[in-house]
Each structure stands twice: as C-alpha cells, then as structure tokens.
Amino acid sequence: MAWNLKQRVVYVDEVVFTKSTIPRVEYAVKGTNQTVDEKDYYYRYFAVVAAISADRGVDAIMVFDRAVTKDTFIAFLNKLRAQTPKQTINVFLDNLSVHKGPEVLAAMEEWKMKPIWNVPYRFDFQPIELVFS
Predict the structure, then answer these.
(1) Is 56 helix (H, G, I), strand (E, B) or coil?
(2) Sorting pLDDT into bands at 50, 70 and 90, what band is 1?
C-alpha cells in the first residue's frame, strides 16, 4: 500500500482513571459486612487523551484532572496540530459527544483535520470472519 505523505491518519482516544478503576472486594462471609476506609479509594481523578499513528507512534498526549470537555479536547487537537503543521491530518475518533460538538468540528475544519468516525457501539455486535484468498 502506498501512503499519501501529504495526509496522515492519527488515532485518538480518551481514558479516565477514577476510584472506580480500583479493584474492590467482591465477596463477604454470609451475615457479615465488608468495611472499607474510603480514603484508601479516593485518589486523584485523571483523564488522558492520546493520539497515535503508524508513522510516529505517540503523536500527542495530555492529562487532565477532570473528564474531557469540548475545551480540553480542542486544546488537545491544537497540540496535535502543532506536531504536524503542514499536513492534513485524518483523525480516527469514536462517537463521544465531545468529538462531534460544533466548536470541535469547526476547529478541526480550520486546522485541516478530517474526522474519520468509528462505527457506533452496538451491544449485539458480532465479529465477522475475514477470508483472504
């Protein structure tokens, strides 16, 4: 496959680390209660946005102390744009509402970034088998 060097494909996604990502005790002896000191579970909240590509690996990464908003996502896209100032960037995104907001889409258009939307999540999705001949 020949790559068009004037355009790039970058994959962007977010992850959030909260107290709910910490494993919890699942079982207790019948008739007893498990107790937990809440301060052991109240860690700082982090949201991480990262962009990766086949040609560069990690293109950009930002850490926020709250969930990703349109403003923080636009700041991230600005950082990503600064990494590749002249090339068109095709940005592969999931369907998070922050990605599709009018301000975000306007910034992407202004900065010559084209969204590529992943298929929407479906709970009944069944993978298909690809057969190559």
Answers:
(1) coil
(2) very low
